[in-house]
Amino acid sequence: MEVFEVIQPGPLTTVQDLGRFGYQQYGVPTSGALDNYAFRIGNLLVGNDEGAASLEITLFGCQLRALQDTKVAVTGADMAARINDEPASSWESQPVKSGDVLSFLRLNSGCRAYLAIAGGIDVTPVMKSASTYTKAGIGGFGGRPLRQGDIVKARVDAVSAAEARLPVKYIPVYKNQITLRVILGPQDDCFTEKGIYTLFNSEYIVSAQADRMGYRLEGPPVQHRDGADIISDGIPLGAVQVPGDGLPIILLADRQTTGGYTKIATVISVDIPRIAQAKPGDRVKFQRVTEGQAVALLRKYEQQMEAIKSNLHA
Amino acid sequence: MIYKEPRFLSGGDCAIFVELGDSIDPDVNQRVRNLKMSLEKAEVPGVVESVPTYRSLLIYFTPLQINAAKLRQTVCHLLQSTTVAELPKRKLIEIPATYGGDFGPDLELVARHNNLSAAEVVRIHGNVRYLIYMLGFMPGFPYLGGMSPEIATPRKTTPRLKIPAGSVGIAGNQTGIYPAESPGGWQIIGRTPLELFHPNQEPPSILQAGDYLSFVSITPEEFARIKEAVRNGTYRLNERLID
C-alpha cells in the first residue's frame, strides 16, 4: 500500500531495520538503525514488530505527504514534527489522513529521528534485511537515501485505530554532553598507561566527520606504545578505534567489517543509542566498566523493553 | 606461529575475538577457518555471526543467551575436538583476467618498477595459488596472500577517483580485486569480467575466506564473451576442491 510521497527528503533519510546479520564474513556491514531504542519503540507504538523497516531521518528532517490514512510514530531526536500546521507529539502514535503533510521544523535535540509506519515499510529485502547501506548501494530504496518523488509503501491494508503513548519516564533526554561507558580491549595493550589515562580523563568533541559509519572525535591524542597498525581484524559495533593521530573514532552500524588500526575499547551496547543521537560539536567522555556491569545493564535494558511492550499492549 | 592456547580479546559485551596466532600465516589462517566452520556446524544458541580475519575470529553473540565464559569454553572445546576431516574442503577458484591496456593501465609501470617485461609480470602474477585470507574493506573484497615479491610495487601517490569493478591491482606486496567501482590507490594491472559480489545471491560472494584463487590470462575477446555470459547467468565458475 502506498502511504507517503516524499516532498523533500532532507539531508539523509534512509530505510533501516535492526540490521543485516550473517554477511560481515563477506565484507558487508550490518547497517540498521543507529539508535535501536528509539527505532524499536517507534514500531511498538504503531503495533508493528519491533524490527519492522522504518525511516531514519537525520538532523533537519524531511517532508512527506500521506497518500492513505495511516498511523505513524515519531521517536528519537526532537525535530519539532508537524502534521500540516499542528505540532505532532513524539513517542506516541499519530493518526495521519490522506493528504496530510508530515514535516519537521528544526532540530531541537538529538541527531536522528525515526518514523515508524503502521505495517512497516515495504521494500525488497537484500540479504534478509531492509536496511540501506548507501556506500555499496544495498537495501532500502535501491541502496540510496530517499529522494523527492519517492513513494513509500507499507505492508498492510488495514490500520488499527488503537493509540499508544510511551510513558514519560521511558523517553530519553538527549544532552550535548554524554558519558559513554566502555569495556577495554581488544588492543588496550597497544597503548601506554598515559594513553589510557588520557582516554578516561579527557573530554572529546564530536567532529564534523560523524556519520553512520563512525564518529571521529577531537581532543587530546591517546598515546600508543608502538604505533597504530595491527594485523587487520574484525571491528565490533561501538569499537573505539585509535589510528596514528591518536584521535578516537567510534565505529557504528555502517563501519567496515575489518580494519588495521588499534582499538582501545568498545562502547557498551546500551550506550550505542546515546552516541547515535550525538551530533558534531557535542562533548563525549569515556568511563570504564566491566563486562559484567555491561551485561547487567543490557539485561535491565531488555527488561525495560519488555515492560514497555506489555504496557503498550495492555 | 600458532598460539598454544587461544587468546580471547574483548569486543565489548556482544563480541569476542579469538586470536589463534601472532602472524599472517596460512596455518594460523586455516585454524581460523576451521574454528569458524566448526562453530557454524555446532549451531551454538546465542551466537549471531562470526568474522574470520588473518589470525582471529570475531564472534558476535547475545550475552543474554550465552555468557562470554560459556562461549569461551565452547570455543576451546571446538578447537580441541574438531578434526579437519569433518570440515568442508577448500576450493580453488579460477579468476579469468585480461591484463594490460585499458584493462590494466598500470601494467607497464609495474613492469618498469621491477625491471621486467609486461609479459613476465603477467606470468608471475598468474603463476600462483593465492590464499584468500579474509574479506573486508568493501563487500566481497579479498585480502590475498602469496604474491611474488618480484612484482611488488608501491601504491600510487595520488589515488584514482574511479577504479572499475573487477580491477586487479597491486599495492606493495599485496594483490587484490575490486568487486565494485571505487576510488583507490592500487596499481591496476588487469580486470576480470566476473562479478565477485552479487547482493541477491546466496552466498553473495563467490570468494570465501580460507579458499584459494588463481588468475588465468584471457584476451579482450574472451573478456567480452565471459562478461556477456555472466550477464546472462550462463557463466559457470571454474572451481574445484583441493586438499
What does this entry look like structurally?
The complex is a heterodimer of chains A (314) and B (243). By secondary structure, chain A is α+β, with helices and mostly antiparallel strands. Chain A folds into 2 domains: 2-170, no CATH class; 177-302, Cyclophilin-like (Cyclophilin), CATH 2.40.100. In chain A, 15% of the residues lie in helices and 32% in strands. Chain A is built from 4 helices and 20 strands. A 7-stranded mixed β-barrel of chain A has the order 12-19-16-17-14-13-20. In chain A, strands 7-6-9-4-1-11 form a 6-stranded antiparallel sheet, with no helix packed on it. The mean pLDDT of chain A is 96. In chain B, helix 3 (107-113) packs across helix 4. In chain B, strands 5, 6, 7, 9, 10, 12, 13 and 14 form an 8-stranded mixed sheet that branches. The mean pLDDT of chain B is 95. In chain B, strand 1 (2-10) and strand 2 form a beta hairpin. Chain B has 5 helices and 14 strands. Chain B is an alpha+beta fold. Chain B folds into 2 domains: 2-86, Gyrase A, domain 2, CATH 3.30.1360.40; 90-242, Beta Barrel (Cyclophilin). Chains A and B meet through strand 12, strand 15 and helix 4 of A and strand 2, strand 3 and strand 4 of B.
